[in-house]
Amino acid sequence: MNYRDLGKTGIKVSEVSFGTWAIGGAWGKTNDEEALKSLDRAIGEGVNFFDTADVYGDGHSEELLAKATKGKEDEIAVATKFCRAGDIFSKENYSEETVRNYCESSLKRLNREAIDLYQIHCPPLEILQDGAVFEVLDKLKQEGKIRHYGVSVETVEEGLLCLQNPNVSALQVIFNMFRQKPLEELLPKAKQQNVGILVRLPLASGLLTGKFTKDHVFEQDDHRSFNENGEAFNVGETFAGLGFAKGVELSEQLKWIAEGRTSMATAALRWILDQEEISCIIPGFKNEKQVMQNLQALNEKPFTKEELEAIEKFYHDEVKSSIRGPY
């Protein structure tokens, strides 16, 4: 395992870390026994950082992480998120009383004295512009309930706004071969300011595995069946905002990236790790096999200059105009 600095936090995180949305819920059937075995396997392979949220399975993924990291709290860093259990557009949802309640509830489920990285969970731009929530987070940090804080953002504009706050230690962004916009301004600025970058949806909801055909049907409780067009939350959180059929079509054109590498998925993850601004990727998983497949990205050969140029051209010529929603 290789480790990178998580911005200015002083925490070194495994290049391949993991997100726990899938084991909490909203990605089809889940199995707690399998999830705990998978978490244990990841930790055994050197993974020392996990991302979760209070709404993943209504806190269930936090509880699973508490079990998996019991006795290892000093070795395994955990990031969690808040705000989406309430009305994300209401200022009251970001008041000291409300945020404190969110924090205390997460601490209880995680069975920890402090949260390593506490993130606002994709709030509206207006809340970030208002900025009052950051004062609340500063207070929680002073009290030792959280060690560092950051923001999970939907758009580059939101990310750039967050970088104006010197106490923001990390940004969580959607970034993959289908979503390259952060490369233009956001990632360089974050690196310049020593702000960590966590990459979610590195495989574009599975599109970049190359395993789907256009007639694939997802389970009803899988967000890929009910949020394709942004019906439940931001459209960009599902299939990178492309829509399933278009995403499958585009992924077919990218299958060449697997040549000389283990798979299309590990190649797609390797491409992200080749960007020096990235602290870690946080792919999801539901079983040990998926954990090991994602970790294989560490062993893939880096992309050549010619390959990188081809991927950039593909994004600008074929992908960019098809992304829906603000990004």
Give the total of domains.
Answer: 1
The CATH homology group name: NADP-dependent oxidoreductase domain
Task: Report Rg.
Answer: 18 Å
Main beta-sheet strand count, sense and barrel state? 8 strands, parallel
Estimate the global geometry from the Cα principal axes.
globular
Helix content: 25-40%
Number of helices: 13
Adjacency order of strands in the biggest sheet: 3-4-5-6-7-8-9-10
Structural class: alpha/beta
Mean pLDDT, nearest integer? Answer: 94
Q: Give the ordered list of helices and strands.
A: EEEHHEHEHEHHEHEHEHHHEHH
CATH class reads Alpha Beta
CATH topology grouping: TIM Barrel
Protein name: Aldo/keto reductase
Organism: Mesobacillus maritimus
InterPro entries: AKR, AKR2_Oxidoreductase, NAD(P)_OxRdtase_dom_sf, NADP_OxRdtase_dom
What does this structure look like?
The structure is a single chain. The chain has 327 residues and is of the alpha/beta class. The protein has a single domain (3-322), classed as Alpha-Beta Barrel (TIM Barrel), CATH 3.20.20.100. 36% of the residues lie in helices and 14% in strands. The chain has 13 helices and 10 strands. It has helices at residues 21-24, 32-44, 60-68, 96-110, 125-130, 132-142, 156-162, 186-192, 223-226, 244-253, 264-273, 288-295, 305-319, and strands spanning 3-5, 12-14, 18-19, 49-51, 77-82, 115-121, 146-152, 168-174, 196-200, 280-281. The strands form 2 sheets. Strands 3-4-5-6-7-8-9-10 form an 8-stranded parallel β-sheet, covered by helices on one side. The protein has a two-stranded antiparallel sheet with strand order 1-2. Helix 2 (32-44) crosses helix 3 (60-68).
